[in-house]
Amino acid sequence: MVDIKDLQAIVKALDKMGRLVRVKSEVDPAYDLAGIAARFEGGPRAVLFENVKGYDEPVLTGLYWSRELLGALLGKAEDALPGYVQDCISNWQKQPRDPVSVTKAPVMQVTENRVDLTKLPIPTHALDDGGPYFDAGVVIAHDPETGVRNASIQRFMVVDQDTLTINIDAGRHLELYLEKAAKRAETLKFSLNLGVGPGLHFAAATPAEAAPADADELGIASEFHGAPLELIDGTVLPVECVAHAMWSLECQIAPGVVADEGPFAEVTGYYAKRAPRPVVHVRAVHRRRNPIFHTIISGKEVFNSVGLLGEANVLALLQKQVPGVRDVYFSHGGAGFYHAVVQIAQVRAGWAKQALMAAFAAFPPLKMVTVVDDDVDIRNPSDVEWAMATRLDAKSGILTIDQVFGHGLNPSFPDYLGAKVGFDATRPFPHTREYDRAKMKEMGLDGLDIQVPEIAAKAKRPRRKAAAKKARGKAKK
User: Fold this and answer.
1) Contacts of 160 (CB under 8 A, 6+ apart)
2) Which end of the chain is more exposed for a tag (fewer CB within 10 A), N or C?
3) In three state form, how does the secondary structure of 372-434 look?
4) Which residues contact 114 (CB under 8 A, 6 or more apart)?
5) pLDDT of amino acid 326
């Protein structure tokens, strides 16, 4: 059993499984590191950069970019991950398991004499990014009025040695906390925890529909860990740091103070625009003696880490509201959490459209929902497209909703408002034989005399210069 609360234990386990690529050559953290990592994106192995130019600490990426990899780490089958995630969240909802406070922790092995963020191997990913970014850290903050804890993942751009700027998505609990702090004329204090495991990341990415504002989300991490999450008090600010993180930064935001943040290559495949956003002052830096820095490449890593939580939440809510719903998948082509494909075994006319509307309500970032029958493989884009091409009624099967709240990172939702679309790609109910899929007899190949030849390599075409020279030689003759 892998100790998933500890990134060092995770790296050792991945290495033992043969699921860790080690890059031993010196690599520049500005652009080169992300460029090399992109060559492995989506594969079955994470990547550890052991020789980062200018730094002693290694950098890990790719922990979430493959469900095969994540399943191996968690000891679960790839297709069982959404159900496992939902079970953990459901268990937490029924019987919360609170974190515990400790007085000694690995993250407190070293406290820097002065804050200097340039000492951390923080990568710059895309060519037009505004600078180095923390993009895999977990924020732990308290509601200024109620004291309830919240975990979230935000992006932070490094401005100088002790200053960051933060992007906070609209509607997030952290935005609410900042508004409350402003009304109380207080700074918002929090810890930024770097190098944590999947349990805490899943807790931070749990949709608000599953973890309301009055609930302590850190208990979700405890559920994944199988033991209470351990926290330790900060030394400068009244914040709580994750005991087994690689680094923990004590931070505060003065409401109303802003500076330019961005651009940043986001999960959508586009750059988030440069704009004035809250300024963060880092007051203390704690770390382990030999920490591993963790960064997430925007793309498939986010598709899986956030998409899994979205799938689990939508599936749980739909199965309570719509009879016959079997499965939900957030497609990678939909940027991980903008397109949900819902599989349903129809039991009554009209329930497919009911599933469309329920899915949008269950997960507001969704822009598209496609509902298909239970004979369609929702994780196969070609199968889903086949259902749309042969079963979708273009007159009655398309539902559009104008001027509705969406996700601010999606450029088609300026100011968080835009249009959403649902596709009912199911058979008419009750369905008739013309909608039955053609099937072949299932056959095994054992015991059959079958010869499978090697495909001959293609003959190389002559180079143009050589061919022209040969032609000129013939002309002279």
Assistant:
1) 117
2) C
3) EECCCCCCCHHHHHHHHHHHCCCCCCEEEEEEEECCCCCCCCHHHEEEEEEEECCCCCCCCHH
4) none
5) 95
Amino acid code (one letter) for 203: A
Calculate the CA 300 to chain-centre distance: 7
The encoded tokens of residue 192 equal 């930024």
CA distance 232 to 219: 15
> Nearest-CA neighbor of 164 among 201, 132, 124?
132
Residue 44 corresponds to which amino acid?
Answer: P
Integer Cα distance of 222 and 419 in angstroms: 38
Pair 207, 309: CB distance under 8 Å: yes
Angstrom CA distances, 442 to 241, 378, 439, 445, stand at 56, 21, 9, 10
Picking from 387, 373, 364, the residue whose alpha carbon sits closest to that of residue 317 is: 364
Residue among 357, 345, 349 at smallest CA distance from 314: 357
C-alpha of 74 from chain center: 16
Separation between Cα atoms, residue 239 and residue 190, nearest integer Å: 6
Q: What is the pTM of this model?
A: 0.88
Is 301's pLDDT higher than 80? yes
63 to each of 67, 196, 424, 454, how far by Cα in Å? 9, 11, 35, 36
Asked if 81 and 70 touch (Cβ cutoff 8 Å), the reply is yes
3-state secondary structure of 77: coil
DSSP single-letter state for residue 27: B
Sheet arrangement for strand 100-101: 100-101, 230-233, 240-242
Are the CB atoms for 193 and 247 separated by under 8 Å?
yes
Round the average pLDDT of the chain to a whole number and report it.
92
Domains of the chain: 78-288 (2.30.110.10), 322-433 (3.40.1670.10)
Contact present, 368 and 423 (Cβ < 8 Å): yes
Mean pLDDT along residues 160-182: 92
The encoded tokens of residue 355 equal 């599933």
Q: Which of 197, 114, 231, 199 is nearest to 161 (CA)?
A: 114
Tokens of 126: 């895309």
pLDDT tops 90 at residue 164: yes
**Would you state the structure tokens that stand for residue 1, as one six-digit string?**
């059993």
pLDDT at residue 7 tops 90: yes
In one-letter notation, the amino acid at residue 458 is K
